[in-house]
Amino acid sequence: MKSYRIALIPGDGIGPEVIAEGVKVLRKVAELDKDINFEFSAFPWGSEYYLEKGKMMPDDALDILSKFDAIYFGAVGVPEVPDWIPAHQLLYKIRRGFNQYINFRPIKRLKGAPCPLKRDVPIDMVYIRENVEGEYTDMGGRHYTGTEAEVVTQVNMFTRHGTERVMRYAFELAKERRSKVASITKSNALMHSMTFWDEVFNYVKQSYPGIETRQVLVDAMAMYMVTEPEKFDVIVASNLFGDILTDLGAALQGGLGFAPSGNINPEKKYPSMFEPVHGSSPKDKGKQVVNPIAAIWAAKLMLDHLGEKVWGEKILKAIEGVLVEGKVRTPDIGGQSTTQAMGDAIADKLAEISSKY
Ligand code: IPM
Ligand code: MN
Predict the structure, then answer these.
(1) pLDDT (tens digit, 9 = 90+) per residue, 295-319?
(2) In angstroms, rounded to a whole number, what is the distance separating the alpha carbons of residues 303 and 320?
């Protein structure tokens, strides 16, 4: 019997609603597979906690979380708290503190998922977004604030170690997939950071002669995501470029309700964290109107990471099965079903699928 300890941080807004559905599906896995057990512990951290205690998480949060096999996170953010506070005091604290340097974001068009493209084109790529450095650092500052002489700097930081490891991860992944890696750059404009990025890419690719490579400017990539998404397999990008392009990717695979994300520490020295990309959407809180697929798909990524890939695949098949049937549809995909009804349908479909194996 394998027992996995999962820390739940449902967070703010719609976070708790979607995490509840992911937990529902995980409990179904444990019910169907007598060899798997999950021990869930929920933590009430987030903006409400902040408004009460002046911090998003307790000071020993990372110590507490380090005892878990994985973290399943909903979303943070409320209108009353400036946006950068939840990001810095919770999200980045965990991403950086646990060296989750890979942000794993599949962009895959499932059967039955809506797609804004007119062409019926297959889309199946994975973005490997650098997750702890690059454009996302706290370095920089603001001087002569509010005066004519005001100066603001925001420093980008690219380390050789950090750049190389994210690229190697992308190449290793490509070996298991369709053997293609595209690197996102902007070295025509960013003559220090992105020429360095290209240089490291050209160095790393020499260790992978069997992999087809391509270097694409980020602006061009925004276009190719729409005009030729079928040509891409694994894509490696810096923190900010990966952030932006994966929202575009989310739109292609059905919307933010379909976009999962894994913040991964590949060495497994620390727990990795899995979350839907969509954020807290405060206006929808408690209304049961949002699509839990992104969160359930994130639970699938968590199972993959824990070594339960067969169950991960079955969850994705269950999601696809429900979409193809089209009977249960949340409002984002033109229906009136609740978040819970979608979670129930996917859990039921999972049971149906696994009885066939
Ligand atoms: C994401 C989000 C975060 C990011 C925000 C909430 C800070 O957009 O995970 O994609 O930019 O990393
Ligand atoms: Mn984002």
Answers:
(1) 999 999 999 999 999 999 999 999 9
(2) 17
Q: How confident is the model at residue 355 (pLDDT cuts 50, 70, 90)?
A: confident
Angle subtended by helix axes 160-176 and 193-204, to nearest 10: 50
Place of tokens 């009353």: 80
Distance CA 4, CA 26 (A): 11
Give, for ligand 1, the residue of 56, 91, 273 to mutate: max count of ligand atoms closer than 8 Å to Cβ: 91
Whether the pTM exceeds 0.85: the reply is yes
Q: For 119, which DSSP code? A: S
Residue 280 CA to ligand 1 center (angstroms) comes to 11
288: left (phi over 0), alpha (psi -120 to 50) or beta: left
Instruction: Measure Cα distances from 85 to 54, 72, 76, 180 in Å.
Output: 10, 20, 10, 38
Give the orientation angle of helix 218-227 with respect to helix 239-252, to 10 degrees. 10
State if residue 277 touches ligand 1 by the CB under 6 angstroms criterion: yes
- For ligand 1, whether the C-beta of 243 sits within 6 Å is yes
Phi and psi dihedrals of 354, rounded to 5? Answer: -75, -20
87 lines ligand 1 (CB under 6 A): yes
Atom index in ligand 1 nearest the CA of residue 279 equals: 6
The residues placing their C-beta within 5 Å of ligand 2, an ion, are 243
The pLDDT tens digits for 259-285 are: 999 999 999 999 999 999 999 999 999
Q: What distance in angstroms lies between residue 250's CA and the mean position of ligand 2's atoms?
A: 10
Domains of the chain by start residue, with CATH: 1-101+260-357 (3.40.718.10), 115-253 (3.40.718.10)
Which listed ligand is nearest to 76 at the C-alpha?
1
